[in-house]
Amino acid sequence: MRRFLAAALFVAGLPVAALASSGSPPTGRDAPVAPPRFGGRVDVRLFTVVVRVVDGAGNPVLGLKPEDFRARVGKKEVPVAAVDWISSEGAPAAEESPGGAAAPGSPAPAAPPPAAPAPSGPAGKLVVLFVQADNNDPGRTRGHLRTLQSIPHLLAALQPSDLVAVVAFDSHLKLWLDFTRDREPVPTAVYRAIRFGGHPPELRGGGGEPASLAPHFDLGKALRAASTERGLEVTAEALARLPGEKVMVLLGWGLGNFGPFGTEMTPAFAPAVRALGAARVTVFVLDVTDADAHDLEVGLRGIAEATGGTYDKTNIFPTLAVRHLARAISGYYVLSFDPDTLPRRGGPLEIDLRDRRHRRGTVLVRPTAVGVD
Hints:
16 strands; 25% helix
């Protein structure tokens, strides 16, 4: 016990320097001051909706801000948190340096303009030309051939980064051309589809393009597709495997069946609409029927409205209709909403423009339900 007490008193009497030299942590003024460290976590949750806003000539209405949109769920108005314009035309041109050369990082003058990729999608738009062929009605065939002459106008209006594919339904669904930036084979593929029948080339995908439809195109389902509506569904299932928004141009003559009670949609219509919505596909219809009005246009109008697209006839001014479509698909807005501002009870989301003279236009949007637990 005496030895223990002596050792304790000896340690208590050591100077601070001795303790520091023994490896104990310094204290007081001799201790280094560590910089303060802060940590935190920020969760950003946004609900987004794709809309297009066009004027009477099909031109996109540009420069819209969150306050220009009015969004409602039921009777409750919900604020738009942010608005982004997405277009394959690319970012604004780089400012020139004082010497006249392009600023660092800008593309070479001879190169095509850079593409502004859609969120989580490849550069450029994905455009599918869906041909609804028919060899039993000469008027429909004439309408297809008339519209075919205007296809180059549509291709010329696309950006170099946009990709085009050709799909057709005659006796069953066929993939005539996979996504490509090359415009030259597109009219030929559409013409072969219009002729009804024949065997499309075997497409394995790839080809150096950033997106390919062939690897996801189910040939078994395509062969068993017995209606245009079923063909639309199978095409949408393949497109769902590709990221981003897609545009489908339907060169068609009608959907549904005409009976004693008027035009009725087939049972395959609703599944096709759901598949197109799930694949983020907007359908723009060019009605090729050689008539001012017909019974089956109800279905064509319905598929366009259900996916946020437009409907135009080509029997009088096909080139004008195609140019109208080309302007409408040139870009779109992404509206962002804070989920906390959406009503928990849910309901359909309605979006339009506020009553301002300089913001007149038509809002095209896929029917969307929000706020559902």
